[in-house]
Automatic annotation (TrEMBL):
Keywords, alphabetical: Plasmid
Source organism of this protein record: Shewanella oneidensis (strain ATCC 700550 / JCM 31522 / CIP 106686 / LMG 19005 / NCIMB 14063 / MR-1)
InterPro entries in the record: DUF5086, DUF5086_sf
Name used for this protein in its record: Uncharacterized protein
Top-rank lineage group of the source organism: Bacteria
């Protein structure tokens, strides 16, 4: 009985939280963790991304047991559809950030691909695209 309640609660919570991707101003969300690492995404430029339905994110992580400042950049930039992003996020976090320089550099490189039209856009999930 408890397992059934937990599953129902999880599905209801994940549906509600995922629907507010553009409204979560902090822009940092937890995503599926790896066996040895907790992972998050940071959505950059939320306001403009929400209008285009393509979000620009960075994926970060920290190995279990490591200090809070020992963050690894797993993906410097990823363009992702709103549907794929909603399928990926778990819980919004109230705070957290990293310096944006590596994201900005990777984003500029992505913009230059295909004669300035931009590069690939993930349309499945964050985990499947990196």
């Amino acid at each position: 009985m408890l397992r059934k309640f937990s599953l129902i609660t999880y599905f209801l919570a994940s549906t509600v939280l995922a629907s507010d991707v553009g409204d979560h101003k902090a822009g940092i969300w937890s995503i599926e963790s790896a066996q040895d690492m907790t992972r998050w995404i940071i959505i950059h430029n939320i306001e403009s991304d929400a209008n285009t339905a393509v979000f620009h994110i960075e994926v970060i992580g920290r190995k279990h047991g490591h200090a809070v400042w020992q963050i690894e950049r797993l993906v410097h930039h990823m363009a992702i559809t709103e549907k794929a992003l909603k399928a990926s996020v778990k819980i919004p976090l109230k705070s957290g950030a990293v310096y944006p320089e590596s994201f900005n550099h990777a984003y500029l490189s992505w913009q230059k691909e295909n004669n300035g039209m931009g590069g690939a856009i993930c349309d499945t999930s964050v985990i499947e695209c990196f």
